[in-house]
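User: Please predict the structure of the protein below. I'd like the answer in structure-token form so I can feed it into my own downstream comparison script.

Assistant: Understood. Taking the following sequence of 102 residues as input:
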Amino acid sequence: MTTKYDAQLSLGRVQTPTIQLIQTRQEQINHFQPQEYFTLSAHINGAAFKCEQPRNVSDKAELQSLIQQLKGKQAKVVKVNEKHKKSYPQHLFSLTDLQEAA
């Protein structure tokens, strides 16, 4: 590339496909069209519950129909997932990290 175009062009086995991936992703971002959607959740005794397999519904009438079908029905808790998470304190700044943050 450098000799063909008489310029300092930097291309290689890793750089070329990486640039292609970045360019493809940027085109996807540029052509993104936001869409309005609705999700279903239930508030029972002040606690919020979400559907196990949430479905994004773009038609509000379809969601209202589903709400009417479920209204007044009994629900049963089938499974409760509980996770214990540990969080450690962050590491102290190195000089480089401190300079980046500043």
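That's the full token string. The longest strand covers residues 41-44.
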